[in-house]
Structure of Alanine racemase:
Amino acid sequence: MSTANLTIDLDALVANWRALDAASDGGVETAAVVKANGYGLGAARVSRALARAGARQFFVAVAEEGAAIRDALGPDVAIYVFSGHMAGDTDMISDLGLIPMLNSVEQLLRHFESLPAHPFGIQLDTGMNRLGMEPAEWAAVRDIALAQHPMMIMSHLACADEPNHAMNARQLRAFRQMTDDCGVPRSLSATGGILLGRAFHFDLTRPGIGLYGGAPFAAAKPVVTLDVPVIQTRTVTAGETVGYGNTWTAQTDTQVATVAAGYADGLIRAMGPKGMLFSGRTACKILGRVSMDLITVDITALDEVPKSLSLLGPEQGVDTLAGAAGTIGYEILTSLGGRYNRRYTGG
Ligand SMILES: *Cc1c(COP(=O)(O)O)cnc(C)c1O
């Protein structure tokens, strides 16, 4: 068998949720963001493990994603939808019991007209200019909205992964100005915001990436390991080239292993120039271009040909790999393809 093994450690996931939960006071609830199929790791498995650990509130990006969570967890958890109430979402919101975070006056009117008395939340824009009502819009509709008792009011921080960025305090001030006297539960912080401290926690936090082992939660336990089988090895003599475009030329005789994963598995071509795989603690450089299904690796330093090489594991986490490819851990995780042999441990 030559498919790579992707292992997802549900105990580490749960430990990360507990650690982020413990970072705020007892009165603050910790939700879980499970959008994009649980950051690529499997929304149903991930949300079931988190629900067993005590999570009761879940966030998805779009209404369609709510179905897998409702299926996995049944009727007793709250499922919020960041994109709010779009045209065409009404039946899904109603049938699945989803809570749309209303982002605009248009969504507010759509919701009140099509599903009066159905729970909703409000998303406010405090400066990121992505989703949510701006201060003037909110001022115009807030009395009407508050009269219908929103479940929650939230906003999102643009620079929370940079603790000293002035934007954090600016958004906190804007959020408080817009919500201080609303009497409704509030949420401002994702993973980065939780680490900014108590003033940012309000009533509910919404961690995503930290649960899955990524920065900026530096103390996170790694959740994912990825081992890629070696299919073939050869000696490439000095002067020969490897891979598409002849972009790598051997300066000396080199042992080259070809492993069974590529950009079709989410291992993006940008990993080529600086990327490493590991055999135990020994780093093995990627040679030449990443292909669709294959990567060529320098194993000259190894005493024996290994059965597989590790791309994600104890020697290299998602953020290190992301750094080598010029991207972020979020993108590495959510790009992980559908071809892996996926195995869950713990939970
Ligand atoms: C994705 C997202 C989160 C989770 O963010 P992380 O940085 O992954 O913790 C929280 N809130 C909103 C609005 C999001 O879009």
